[in-house]
Amino acid sequence: MKSEAKKPKISERRRFFTDIAHHTGLGVMGGLLWAGYADKAKSNPLVLRPPAALEEDDFLKTCIKCGLCAEACRNRPQNIDKETGLPMEATLKMAKAQDNVTIGTPFFIPSDVPCYMCDDIPCVPVCPTGSLDIAKVTNPKTKELDVRMMDMGLAVVDQNSCIAFWGIQCDACYRACPLLDEAIKLEYDRNSRTGKHAFLKPVVVMDACTGCGLCEKACVTEKPAIFVLPRDVALGKPGDHYVKGWDKKDQQRVQNRVDVDVTTHDKRSEKKAEDYLNSMDLEY
Ligand code: SF4
Ligand code: SF4
Ligand code: SF4
């Protein structure tokens, strides 16, 4: 069940922050100094951050490496071994020197442990600095936390190694997705190679995928054929001047634009096409 999103008031936040400072003293000071350093440090462009993380540059400037998000994640029931009662590896880790991620910052690797998209998103409200911004996962209409608004990354399918694209029946990633038929769909296609079978190809829906990585974890290939990348790495950018004529929102985006007829003039424009015929002169 989704719980009410309560954003701590500034004074509560400050008191919370002060409490941490009292408890962890030099650790936090060290974190602040490190945050200043991290501002200049180059971040790993492939790192996946916890839900609702700010843009990477801002995240590195504000995260004080307190580890409260990772602790909240560790305390989730899914991270306790049901048989032994012992804690298992949790989704969020705090980076160590060998991780190739800014040391002390939280991140996750879906093929190790994906994000389980907990309904109450406990890792986010505990962040004392807003590096994990609760507003990013709060539905503006219901004012409740909404896992569909999570934005850790985007799943990408490598069609060369996904066996569903070979014609072998596999829907492991599709079944693993918490947003089945929303974030990932199976697309039917005729297999013209055999003439009598169908392809069932997994297709990720860009706007709905949260980047939780449950699909990556479930993938049956030796190295996952579906994997999560940060959205700015996974996505291209067409440019603002391209408009989707069939998309009302995109139409509204450019409603005040005045069309300008652009004509390019160069040396080639001065000649007609037939001028080039039978001509050895290749200089334009
Ligand atoms: S939402 Fe994901 S990262 Fe946050 S506590 Fe749950 S499993 Fe961990
Ligand atoms: S709770 Fe916030 S400040 Fe603390 S480590 Fe996590 S992201 Fe950084
Ligand atoms: S990362 Fe995979 S499992 Fe998670 S929402 Fe996206 S398609 Fe579904």
Structure description:
It is a single chain. The chain is an alpha+beta fold and 284 residues long. It has 2 domains: 10-148, no CATH class; 154-234, Alpha-Beta Plaits. Helices cover 24% and strands 10% of the residues. It contains 9 helices and 6 strands, in the order H-H-H-H-E-E-E-H-E-E-H-E-H-H-H. The chain has helices at residues 10-24, 26-40, 56-62, 68-74, 172-176, 214-218, 231-234, 248-253, 273-276, and strands at residues 93-94, 106-107, 154-157, 184-191, 197-204, 226-229. The strands form 3 sheets. It has a two-stranded antiparallel ribbon with strand order 1-2. Strands 3-6 form a two-stranded antiparallel ribbon. The chain has a two-stranded antiparallel ribbon with strand order 4-5. Strand 4 (184-191) and strand 5 (197-204) form a beta hairpin. Helix 2 packs antiparallel against helix 3. The longest helix has 15 residues, at 10-24. The radius of gyration is 25 Å and the shape is globular. The termini are far apart.
